[in-house]
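User: What would this chain look like folded?
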Amino acid sequence: MELNREHFRLLSVFGNEAPHQSTISRWYGEFKRGRVRLSDDPRVDLKDLNLKILHEELGVRKLVSRWIPHLLTEEQKAAKVNWCHKTLDRFNSGNSKNVYSIVSGGELWIYCYEPENKRQLAVWVFQGEEKPTKVIRSRSVSKKMVATFYTTICLPKIITELRKINPERRINLHQGNASLHTAQKTRQYLSEENVELLDHPPYSPDLGPNDFFTFRKLKIRLRGRRFQSTEEAVDAFKNAVLYLPGNEWNKCFENWFEHMQTCINLHGEYFEKQ
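Assistant: Here's the prediction, encoded as structure tokens.
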């Protein structure tokens, strides 16, 4: 009865702006329980509360999946380890003067737009669980560099430049296992030019200096930029190459031999990029 009377009094003063009777009833209950404030209680940030529960009580973290090029078999891991041992022995862990005869090559697709990051791959991981991995899926492209172009334009230009001062210079060419690198036409051309082709274990970009070092640094400079044409993208790539100081190229080969030892220590498993 008292509640109805108070509701009527509020209606007579505030009209349609008066609180609903259910609201008045709720506040009556609050005052009977000892409440003395008219302001609302502070709102709880559900996002912060959920994160607190996940992190502090459940011990869960949100991690970005680690990208890997391939799900390696035990044989492929063993091949990586054997290659690392062989290369470290041949070049005395990078201390041999023969290191200066190595020319490392690779191929890199330049896109008119490169996404900025991979945060969309983040997943929740409980304490003690391993960081998730995800196999990289190559983008589809409409063209491929063929061995004919590689052996008539790319390689001759490089070899000519290297032998300008010393025509008899020894060259050990290290490159990946792309089809144009391993084609019979490529091998025949290198043999005719007295260039030794160093082998490379399959599915091992973590052991290719261009893949784990040079291309990575160049992509960082290009990431997030949009190019209106192929020519603009190529020019940006050239400028990024020229931007790298000389000591960075030396560091590339130093890291290469360190990567080999890391690969041996991890029994051929992929490891985080350095």
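The radius of gyration is 32 Å. If you want, I can go into more detail on any region.
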